[in-house]
């Protein structure tokens, strides 16, 4: 071959399988439950703020994202210097692997977990160390701590875990952090933190404050309903946040996204109501599934996990017939997002047709 050749690791990057859009069906409302999106429209005031920002699209965004940094610093009661904004928390994961890993350095994470992890790690020519989740879908934190070596630079803890659902507790996280050496950055991916209703939830802010090696990543994509605008943030010790900002794409977060995020933070009350309604739907769905014989793993995000093995593809086909799109993971299972009540009713019907 004579043409330009990318680094060999580029060919090794696994493809991101995005949730499929629904296929329009005559006489049937179809629901997309494949990407953990928020079924609600934007929060009050957000479309207006975004429209106003869109009118200034001939200008570059505020590169410092000052308003959004200020709003987040005030909301979380942390110094601005401890924050790093990015185009979604997926971008933060890329940035932290880029900033902390030389080629061949190890990144430990649970598996199955968020599919962007292996993509980001491979793209940086770092090495993935995957630790299987337990039978109930929880992180095996003892095994993850044992998997840390001198080459480990980063451990990713996904809580609630996408796609299996359970959340790590504060007691589990504390015990884990006590075992991890200080040179290893522990990233707590809290993309679904707003939905957690555990009896021992993680207090991410208190945890990062008491550790020099803990970073939280959060997003406006899920609870806040801004998936289409790509904005997320990290909270962590100043040197870590500084490194993340250093490798970020200049002007990455658009003016419209910044304005929408600031307006969304201002609509806290409406946000909490919506999250509460989605959590109530989640509990109703989990109870309905139990009635038809499906005990799904503890669901602490805005989705549930069906372990189906080689029935996964059939499950997705029957879902499609019922007018819902799920996210199948071939040979393993399917993740189904919490949607509108009618959509969730169809999920119960789907489960009824697939006796466990
Ligand atoms: C959806 C999700 C994200 C956030 O993605 P964005 O890039 O912010 O849209 C991060 N981590 C996990 C585990 C997720 O499921």
Care to give the gist of this entry?
Its EC number is 2.6.1.57. The chain is α/β, with parallel strands linked by helices and 356 residues long.
Blueprint (SSEs and pairs):
Blueprint (H helix, E strand, L loop, with lengths): L7 H4 L19 E2 L13 H9 L11 H11 L6 E4 L2 H12 L5 E6 L4 H8 L3 E6 L8 H6 L5 E7 L11 H10 L5 E5 L14 H6 L4 E6 L12 E4 L2 H9 L8 H12 L1 H24 L11 E5 L4 H10 L2 E2 L1 E3 L3 E5 L3 H12 L4
Helix pairs in contact: 2-10, 3-10, 4-5, 4-9, 11-13
GO biological process, one term: L-histidine biosynthetic process
Protein name: Aromatic amino acid aminotransferase
GO molecular function: aromatic-amino-acid transaminase activity; histidinol-phosphate transaminase activity; pyridoxal phosphate binding
Mean pLDDT: 96
* Oligomeric state of this protein: single chain
**CA gyration radius, whole angstroms:** 20 Å
Low-confidence sequence ranges: none
Number of strand segments: 12
CATH class of the largest domain reads Alpha Beta
What is the CATH architecture descriptor of the largest domain?
A: 3-Layer(aba) Sandwich
Q: What is the 3D form?
A: globular
Instruction: Give the percentage of residues in beta strands.
Output: 15-25%
């Amino acid at each position: 071959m004579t043409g330009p050749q990318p680094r060999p690791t580029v060919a090794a990057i696994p493809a991101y399988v995005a949730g499929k859009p629904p296929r329009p069906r005559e006489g049937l409302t179809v629901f997309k439950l494949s990407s953990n999106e928020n079924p609600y429209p934007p929060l009050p005031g957000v479309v207006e703020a975004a429209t106003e920002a869109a009118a200034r699209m001939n200008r570059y965004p505020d590169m410092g994202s000052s308003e959004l940094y200020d709003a987040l610093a005030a909301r979380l009661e942390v110094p601005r210097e401890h924050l790093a904004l990015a185009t979604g928390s997926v971008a933060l994961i890329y940035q932290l692997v880029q900033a902390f890993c030389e080629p061949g350095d190890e990144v430990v994470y649970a598996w199955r977990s968020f599919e962007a992890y292996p993509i980001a790690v491979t793209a940086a020519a770092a090495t993935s160390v995957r630790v299987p989740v337990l039978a109930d879908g929880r992180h095996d934190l003892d095994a993850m701590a044992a998997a840390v070596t001198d080459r480990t630079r980063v451990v990713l803890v996904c809580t609630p875990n996408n796609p299996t659902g359970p959340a790590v507790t504060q007691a589990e996280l504390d015990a884990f952090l006590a075992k991890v050496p200080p040179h290893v950055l522990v990233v707590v991916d809290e993309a679904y933190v707003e939905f957690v209703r555990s009896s021992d939830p993680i207090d991410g802010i208190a945890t990062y404050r008491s550790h020099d090696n803990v970073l939280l990543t959060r997003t406006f994509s899920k609870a806040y309903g801004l998936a289409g605008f790509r904005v997320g943030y990290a909270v962590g010790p100043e040197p870590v946040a500084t490194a993340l900002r250093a490798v970020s794409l200049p002007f990455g977060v658009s003016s419209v996204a910044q304005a929408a995020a600031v307006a969304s933070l201002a609509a806290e009350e409406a946000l909490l109501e919506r999250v509460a309604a989605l959590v109530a739907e989640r509990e109703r769905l989990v109870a309905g599934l139990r009635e038809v014989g499906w005990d799904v793993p503890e669901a602490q995000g805005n989705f549930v996990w069906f372990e189906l093995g080689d029935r996964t593809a059939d499950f997705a086909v029957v879902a499609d017939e019922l007018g819902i799109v799920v996210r199948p993971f071939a040979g393993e299972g399917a993740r189904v997002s919490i949607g509108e009540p009618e959509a969730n009713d169809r999920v119960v019907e789907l489960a009824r047709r697939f006796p466990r």
